[in-house]
Amino acid sequence: MTPTTPSGADPSTGERLSTQDPPLLVERSGEGETPRREPEGGSSPRGPRRRRELADLPPVVRYAICAGILGAAYLLPWVGRVPVIGPQIQTQGIDWPSALFNMSYFVLLALGLNVVVGFAGLLDLGYVGFFAVGAYTVAVLASPDSDLDQRWPWLACVPVAIGVCLFSGLLLGWPTLRLRGDYLAIVTLGFAEIIRVFADSSSLLRGDRGLGSIPHPPGNWSDGSPIFSVRDATPYYWLGLTLIVLMVLAVRNLKASRVGRSWLAIREDEEAAELMGVRTVRFKLWAFAIGAAIGGFGGVLFAGEQGFLNSATFQLMFSVLVLAGVVMGGSGSIPGAILGGALISYIPDRLRGVQIAGTDAFEYRFLIFGLMIIIIMIFRPQGLLPDRRRVATTQDQEER
Amino acid sequence: MTTRTMGNGQPASPGVPADRAAGPHGGNGPAPGTGREILARVDGVTLAFGGLTALDGVTFTVHEGEILGLIGPNGAGKTTFFNVLTGVHRPDEGRILLDGRPVTGLRKHMITRRGIARTFQNIRLFSGMTALENVMVGVDSRHRTSVPGALLRLPRHRHEEERARKNARALLEFVGIGRHSDQLARNLPYGEQRRLEIARALATEPRLLCLDEPAAGSTPSEKDQLLELIRATRDRGVTVLLIEHDMRLVMRVTDRIVVLDHGRVIADGAPEEIREDPQVVAAYLGVPTDAA
Ligand SMILES: Nc1ncnc2c1ncn2[C@@H]1O[C@H](COP(=O)(O)OP(=O)(O)O)[C@@H](O)[C@H]1O
Ligand SMILES: [Mg+2]
After folding, report:
1. Which of A173, A191, B55, B104 could in theory staple to A285 by disulfide, Cβ–Cβ 3.0 to 4.6 A?
2. pTM of the full predicted structure?
3. Which protein residue has the closest C-alpha to ligand 1 atom 2?
4. Where are the alpha helices (DSSP H) in chain A?
5. Which atom of ligand 1 is nearest to the CA of B81?
């Protein structure tokens, strides 16, 4: 490839000016604007240190491992039966299936936010807004307290709620297309506040009186009792877990496609991306819409399990927590989002009922969180399960 | 726009690249620029940043299949011209036609689709993506798969994925960094990053490739390889617009040269004419004191 010999070039070219005559044109090249950087570490690129990864294993082994983890996840409600460590894992101040369910919708939220923040690099601080939109859509359509008085079954509400979320993702995305970083963060923060204030003051959403008696998803056990009920959150956890699996498959497909590459390119250098033909507007809107839809799935699940929503349900802290989960897990990494999302829910729930100096440890949850995040960021600045690219990038920066 | 017509700076004269046979190539590769077809026409492009007129009535033509050098001292407006050409800036006046149709005013990605691709003076790769992925982004500009197709892995998605991978690999081979396709762009040595930028630009299937100082920071042997690469690119049917400070390289590779100074075209002609042009020499030297 590309021979090193100057080949057919006429050696006498340029003789009269510049060639052996540095004062003229050559000398001024590269000055000022183009830094002359020599390739570091010789001419061959320094390979990033490779971690051993799931992706390096043969497919059969990989699928077996994934199936094993998934099977274990479905069996988690019975973790208490595992000797010695089982009871340590289980929560005390909240029943274990409910804690698992909480984890499942936080994981959904983290997966969705990871698309927006991790893939496309759009800092969204108002993500709880979409969670609220999803949950409220179900509540308004299904609750007998709602002025609409439609009393739809839960399942019928789901596609509508997801559609509304997609649309609200576009609604947020459209005016913020030109914004980045801090500016975008502030606007998205405002978006979540608008939704909260609307929930507070609109007669449709009934403020803190809220909307109750939201129906459960359909289905009966063989003895005729409903699968989904307030008595036991386990089926809700399984439903959440199933949704997580579907969302992971969807997000993975997107990531390994033109869409995912466009998102990454936008994250790296939006203008350069557009100059290389990336339709930045379209794909940024898609990132918001998909993030919103996944958050909406969390919302519909939450509405069904809780049976009641009011304006106090959706605090800004949700957004902050989910973002912390994404960052803790490793921004841009799907396994990271799953782990981070699970942790932000599990840790506070696990602290409930644990006494520290006469106070419930749950009261210290944010203190403990803060410490954890600081420790993680010191020892694993790319997150617990970082995206492979990010690892290499950050290591490289550290080595400089 | 300016009314100054200096040196060989007659705008758009189709006779400019005459005497090609006597050009510096000496029969290296197929005779370039033989067809006189005009690929792009730059017509009175003017752009001011506040009080600074960075481009002042820039007018010239680009012929199909030629390697056209764009030279001038630092700050002459060369990069700014690329920015106008690729849609980063909109000109205050004037327009640029590609195949007789204007590209000025189009969005950046649309200009790319029309067939103009570029590299950057200060490298702007997607540094956290692999070399292969960088080039695949370029190939993707010709693709249509969006979210539904990717979600459901529809046949078009799979076909386009395969095409993107195949074309990207071939282009990495073409620019000579095929063995590093899985390296992160930021981990490549500097010279290879420049090549990767060229591969990424070529991936968009341009008709006009704009290179902004591709040899900056390169060693002499890297420059020779680059020269071969530029010729090979032209031989693939891509017209090349080359900004380069290394006169030796420019003189060897270009068919014609346009000289910018303070945003104005001060000369336009064959390399050997440009070399002798007193205006050009003066522009490079600033005040013509120490005239070599
Ligand atoms: N975005 C910008 N805003 C303001 N001034 C600019 C901008 N881009 C370029 N310039 C100015 O325009 C002039 C031409 O710059 P440039 O096109 O980069 O020159 P060069 O020929 O070295 O590539 C310089 O004086 C530069 O400072
Ligand atoms: Mg420049």
Report:
1. A173
2. 0.85
3. B49
4. 59-75, 85-89, 96-113, 128-142, 154-173, 181-201, 234-255, 258-268, 270-275, 280-306, 316-329, 334-351, 365-379, 388-399
5. 17
Q: How far is the CA of B192 from the centre of ligand 2 (A)?
A: 20
Q: CB-based contact (8 Å) between A250 and chain B?
A: yes
B87 and B223 share one domain: yes
A264 with B126: Cβ contact below 8 A:
yes
Per-residue pLDDT of chain A (400 residues; tens, 9 = 90+): 444 434 433 443 333 333 333 333 333 333 334 444 444 433 444 444 455 566 778 889 989 999 999 999 999 999 988 888 888 888 888 999 999 999 999 999 999 999 999 999 999 999 999 999 999 999 999 999 888 888 899 999 999 999 999 999 999 999 888 887 789 999 999 999 999 999 999 888 988 898 988 998 998 888 888 889 888 899 999 999 999 999 999 999 999 999 999 999 999 999 999 999 999 999 999 999 999 999 999 999 999 999 999 988 888 888 999 999 999 999 999 999 999 999 999 999 998 888 888 888 888 888 888 898 899 989 998 899 988 765 554 444 444 4
Whole-complex ipTM: 0.86
CA of B213 to the centre of ligand 1 (A): 15
What letter represents residue B28's amino acid?
N
Domains identified in chain A, total number: 1
- The answer as to whether B121 is a domain residue is no
| Structure-token pair, residue A155 | 């399942």
Query: Is residue A359, in this structure, part of any structural domain at all?
Result: no
**Pairwise CB contact (< 8 Å): A26 & B248:** yes
The residue whose CA has the least distance to atom 20 of ligand 1 is B75
Supply the range of the domain harboring residue B92: 1-115+206-292
| Helix or strand (DSSP H, E) at B231 | helix B220-235
Residue B83 lies inside a defined structural domain of this protein:
yes
What ligand 1 atom has the least distance to the C-alpha of B75?
Answer: 19
Q: What is the residue type of A33?
A: E
Mind telling me how many Å the CA of A346 is from chain B's nearest CA?
30
Separation of alpha carbons B189 and B193, rounded Å? 6
